[in-house]
Amino acid sequence: MIARFIKDTLGVTIGVILTAIGLDAFLVPAKIAAGGLSGVATILYHLFNLPVGLMMLLMNAPLFIWSFLRLGSRYTVNSIYGTVALSLFIDLLAPYIPLLTEDLLLACLYGGVLMGIGLGMVFRFNGTTGGTELLAAIIRTYMGVNIGQLLFIIDGVVVIWAGFVFRSAELAMYALIAIFLTAWIIDLVIEGFSSDKAFIIITRRADTISQAIIKDLDRSATAWKAQGMYSGTEQEVLISVVGRSQVTRLKDIVKREDPLAFVILANVHEVLGEGFKELETQS
C-alpha cells in the first residue's frame, strides 16, 4: 500500500513538472491557449500579467468545493495533489525557463507533446489536475451527458475566446492543434507504446497453424469455434499476439498452412500477461 502510494505520488509529480514545462516554455509565451483552465490562465496572464499557476489554483478552488458537494470527498481529494502541485510548479519554474522558440508551430508541437506526456503520466498514476475535467464530471451529474463532449465544448469556448482576445485566428488554430496533439499523446501514455500486433485468423486448419506459431515463433494462440454466416460452414478463430518483427513470419505460416484463411491484423497498444508485460496489481 505504501509502496504503491509512493510510486503514484512520484509519477504524478513528474507528470505535473513536465506539464508545467510545456506551458512555461512553449504555450504560454506563444499565447497558445490550449483549452481548459490553463488556457484561461494564459489569456489572463497576457491581459493582466497575472501568474498562470496562481490563476489556475484560484479557479480550481470553487470547483473543489462544488466537487465535494456533488461527487463526494474521495473524488475531490484525489484531485487536490495534482492540481496544487501543477499550479505551484508552473509559477516556480517560470522565472528559470528561457524562451526556447518564437516559432508558433514549434511551440504548439513541443508544448502539446510535453503536456500530453505529463498529463498522461498524471492519469496513469491515478492522479488528476482538476480543471475542466473536474468541471465536466460535476456538470455530468446534472445533465448526464458525455464527459468527452463536455470537455470538447469547454475547450472550444476557451479557444474561441482566446482568438478574439488576441485578435488572431492563427493562434486559435494552433491552440486546436495543441489540444488534439495533447489528447493523442495522453492516450498513448495511458494505453502504452507497444508495437505488438494482434492476428485474428479464421481458418479450417487451426491446429496446424497454432502448432507452427508455438514451434516457429515461440508464441501461443487461443482458438474458439465459429460459423461463417454466408457459407454456413464451421471454422475456428485463432487469436495470437506477436512482436513487430514476427509479423511477416506469421503471415507466411498462415499462407503455407491455409491459403484460404481470413486474416485480420491490428495494432495493439499494450499487452499484459505471460510472455509480455507483467500485469500490475493494486496493493
UniProtKB/TrEMBL annotation:
Gene3D superfamilies: 3.30.70.120. The keyword Transmembrane applies. It is found in: Cell membrane. Its main location: membrane. Residues 219-273 form the DUF2179 domain. The keyword DNA damage does not apply. InterPro entries: DUF2179 (IPR019264), N-reg_PII/ATP_PRibTrfase_C (IPR015867), UPF0750_membrane (IPR051461), YitT (IPR003740). It comes from the Bacteria. The chain crosses the membrane at residues 12-37, 43-68, 80-98, 104-123, 144-165, 171-190. It is a multi-pass membrane protein. Keywords: Cell membrane, Membrane, Transmembrane, Transmembrane helix. One of its GO terms (cellular component) is plasma membrane. PANTHER family: UPF0750 MEMBRANE PROTEIN YITT, UPF0750 MEMBRANE PROTEIN YITT-RELATED. This is DUF2179 domain-containing protein. It comes from Desulforamulus reducens (strain ATCC BAA-1160 / DSM 100696 / MI-1) (Desulfotomaculum reducens).
